[in-house]
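Dear colleague,

Thank you for sharing your sequence with our group. We've completed the structure prediction you requested, and as agreed, I am returning the results in plain text so they can be pasted directly into your records. Please verify that the sequence below matches your submission; if there's any discrepancy, let me know and we will rerun it promptly.
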Amino acid sequence: MNIYWDCFKTFMKIGAFTLGGGYAMIPIIESEVVEKHGWVSKEEFLDLIAISQSCPGVFAINISVFIGYKLRKIKGALCTALGTALPSFLIILLIAMFFVQFKDNKVVAAMFNGIRPAVVALIAVPTFNMARRAKITLTNCWIPILCAILIWLLGVNPIFVILGAGLGGYLYSKLIKPTES
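Please find the predicted structure tokens below.
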């Protein structure tokens, strides 16, 4: 089978059938690229999620580019990025063309009200799975909670939170962890 076509189809399916943005895509991407195709390991996938979140741009495109590049360099990255973006582009184009006619429709408004809670669940599940794989336990769960509070309630720039977490991890590995033997 042509790997480029396979990558394109896989990421087009992911892009077409995921509501709620990049984070809601995580379980579907993992199912396809880790479990079904074996293109990356579970550990690599967790690393790709962290890298994709750290890079500027759309999360789903970032992760698809990293996977495509790993498989077939530039051409692979182009296939996976196009596959991910094309469904959303076409759907948004259609919505934009016809939205004016449906924006006040009570059925459409009710559908969106039903979709919102499902999207929250789609984002929560991969968050808990990532926490488990990242070995976040009761003893270290204060770190993501503190980071979330700093960003959400206090308005701290996420870049400073990432830099602080990196510095804290470095200091922990150099100063505290060696003495825990």
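Summary note from our side: The chain has a mean pLDDT of 87.

Kind regards,
the structure core
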